[in-house]
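FAQ
Q: What does a multi-component entry look like?
A: The components come first, one per line:
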Amino acid sequence: MAHKGTSSFIMQRFTAALLIPLGLWFLVGVVSHLGADYDAARAWLAKPLNGILMALFIAIGAWHMRIGMAEIIADYIHSGLKGVLDILNWLVCLALIAGAAFAVYTVTFAG
Amino acid sequence: MADHAQGARPLSPHLQIWRFTVTMAASITHRGTGAVLYGGSLLLALWVLSLAFSPSLFAGVSGFVTSPVGFIIVAGYVWSLSFHLMNGLRHLYWDSGRGLAVPTATKTAWAVYIGSVVLAAIILWAGYAGMGA
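Then the predicted structure of the entire assembly, as tokens:
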């Protein structure tokens, strides 16, 4: 990831700013539905605004997570393991985005 | 070559010789909560996926979060997000070139610790009161 410092720095701040309102929405919305029964929780996520905000929170959050974890890896891992962990970090974040998008899509359009 | 040069170079002072300060604690906590949120987001993905595809898994998750261990995990995640979000605001403020003086940074570090506990307590109280748990 040489020569990527400036774009990572900007994207970390950009995603951070977006995550402030999304994070507050998430804290209020999801914690209040954690213990809800299945139908009630599903009906909540099926509302278009909630589905969009959930997808945005997870996708932008995953992007922010990837930058932060890459920073942690760069700070502590100096062996050949670093490359493996960087790729793993990418895959975890991509899987998170794909899984959340698929779940929100299913809940929104499958009723 | 790099290894040879490294052996002769002085090391920078490391963790054990620094005097403890709240700004240092906030910095460490910011990274720690970031790592916690990384793991927590995978649990969040499990919650959303179970909501979409598996009512029985969702029932299991709902039961778990109201158990004592589940509550500790949820509370840890909620406080971590509260802290990281509020300390993130502090970082963005610093990026504007303001708030960097030591007395100011010390005050805002305390504010973030106290504020994040208050925010997490309100969110958890509201969330769990609504469950009837």
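Q: Is there any commentary attached?
A: Sometimes. For this entry: Chain B touches chain A at residues 31, 34-35, 37-38, 41-42, 44-45, 47-49, 51-53, 55, 58-59, 62, 65-66, 74, 78, 81-82, 85, 88-89, 91-92, 95, 119, 123-124, 126-128, 130-131, 133 (CB under 8 Å).
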